[in-house]
Design a protein that fits this description.
The protein is of the alpha+beta class. Helices cover 39% and strands 16% of the residues. The longest helix has 18 residues.
């Protein structure tokens, strides 16, 4: 991944392909392949051999314990890499070579340098962004929710953009950054993050980025850097922007029908900031932002697809566990190895051949109940109608339908379940249940033909509203006086 990133970084700087190949020590075909590649979006994983573990597995914590204790010892009486290697062999039965121990000690020393050994970047060049998360409340579809707001700021111009999500995952970060990049029409060259939350993990001062975010950077040819722990001054611009945008854009709490609609409104409100004056440079933010855009990179021909694929094995009921929540692929998939596509708002379940199986809204936080699609449970209930009494579908039907099932024989119950299953395939579960409710209330038999036809009408909105028919109008035809014209023979 690092070689690919270097190829695209040098190519973005205008370095010829021949020079890139010579500098990186790779073939010109490899340079052309990755420099011209348009889309780095993840694809469903293919089976691959499992890589072997490090020879230091199980010994690394011992090494770091010794090095940590050395910080309280005189400088000339601390462990060297050779001394650590000798102690591992003698005291812990280490069978590896000296080289991995030496590399590990070198990396630990680099991660644990004193704060005064470097310098803090205070002047931000154009084309650089700072990224951080905050929290704010909003009312979505009538429900008050605590949202995680992704704030992207350009310190040079002080332009700020915000997008709201229900979590702080790598998918949310990549989706939010893509939205901002496409909104402004460019991708910044450098991105500075507070920490690795969502896009990786931090071990001490070492950051290991997620594969999804690594692919995102390759896609847009951007570079990333992470602030030191507890060094808020290194990203003060975005820290201030989180509070500013929350106070000015989200007070009072914004109201929207959907989260996507709220994000559209937030981007429009951020654009209005371009007319304000920079607090120090005495220029309009829009003028300074033009310099940010001139220093940024052009967008690739295709947008990055922020989805992360993982493998899951369904249990005996066809359920899979994702981030602590249970999703129902369906009883037909019990015991099978499935692929899960995780997006910022949707969970996609694919079968062994990457064909779509189910799609659910993504749940953040712990959900006590299994997340399922009602229609997926019907085929099993047709086979085992006796399970209806304890099925989660029982709570999703109307009272007349529930009462009908309670009084029905096993044969009649199977017939209605089969009819609802067939109707759900063409009209949807809700329309099928509504059709069954209508037929039962009328006193009709909810057979497959009648239920399927009525469900399709309900789904398409073509079923006429039931009304009381006044038959008394027909009495006029029997009680009305009639006369016959003798000359013409007409009845009046």
């Amino acid at each position: 991944m690092s070689v690919q990133e270097n190829i695209r970084r040098l190519d973005a700087q205008g370095v010829p392909g021949r020079e890139i190949a010579r500098t990186l020590g790779i073939s010109r075909d490899s340079v052309a392949r990755y420099a011209d590649q348009q889309d780095f979006s993840p694809v469903p994983p293919a089976p691959a051999a499992r890589p072997g573990g490090s020879v230091l597995t199980g010994f690394d914590h011992i090494i770091e314990q010794w090095l940590g204790e050395d910080q309280r010892r005189p400088r000339k009486q601390r462990h060297t890499a050779k001394r650590i290697f000798d102690r591992l062999v003698a005291e812990h039965g280490f069978t590896g070579t000296y080289s991995p121990v030496q590399r590990h000690v070198k990396k630990w020393a680099a991660r644990n340098r004193q704060a005064g050994e470097g310098f803090t970047e205070l002047v931000w060049p154009a084309g650089t962004v700072q990224v951080d998360f905050g929290q704010a409340e909003a009312i979505i579809a009538g429900i008050r929710q605590v949202l995680h707001i992704l704030v992207v700021t350009f310190p040079f111009s002080n332009m700020r953009f915000v997008q709201a999500y229900r979590g702080e995952t790598a998918e949310c970060v990549c989706h939010g950054l893509r939205r901002v990049f496409e909104h402004i029409g460019a991708a910044p060259r450098h991105m500075v993050f507070d920490n690795a939350t969502g896009i990786g993990r931090r071990v001490g001062t070492k950051v290991v980025e997620s594969k999804l975010f690594g692919a995102f950077k390759l896609h847009y040819r951007a570079e990333s850097r992470y602030c030191n722990p507890y060094s808020g001054h290194e990203k003060g611009n975005v820290e201030n922007a989180v509070g500013f945008l929350r106070r000015n854009l989200m007070v009072p709490e914004p109201v929207a029908a959907t989260l996507a609609g709220l994000n559209d409104v937030l981007l429009a409100r951020c654009d209005a900031l371009a007319g304000t004056t920079h607090y120090r440079k005495a220029l309009a933010l829009g003028e300074l932002f033009a310099q940010d855009m001139a220093a940024s990179l052009a967008l690739p021909g295709v947008g990055f697809n922020p989805v992360r694929y993982e493998s899951r094995k369904a249990d005996k009921t066809g359920n899979i566990l994702i981030d602590g929540n249970t999703y129902a692929a369906g009883p037909a998939f019990h015991g099978r190895n499935l692929t899960v596509g995780l997006r910022h708002d949707v969970i996609e379940i694919l079968d062994e051949h990457s064909a779509p199986v189910r799609s659910f809204p993504r749940a953040f936080g712990h959900q006590a109940e299994t997340i399922f699609e009602p229609a997926s449970l019907l085929p099993l209930l047709v086979t085992k109608p006796g399970a209806w009494s304890h099925s989660p579908l029982r709570a999703l039907v109307t009272d007349p339908v529930r009462d009908w099932f309670a009084k029905a024989t096993a044969t009649d119950r199977r017939r209605l379940l089969n009819a609802v299953d067939a109707a759900s395939g063409s009209a949807g579960f809700e329309a099928a249940v509504q059709a069954a409710d209508t037929l039962i209330r009328r006193g009709d038999t909810p057979d497959m033909a009648a239920l399927g036809m009525l469900a399709r009408r309900l789904a398409h909105g073509t079923e006429p509203t039931a009304a009381n028919v006044d038959l008394s109008v027909y009495d006029t035809f029997t009680t009305r006086d009639t006369t016959v014209n003798t000359s013409t023979g007409e009845v009046a």
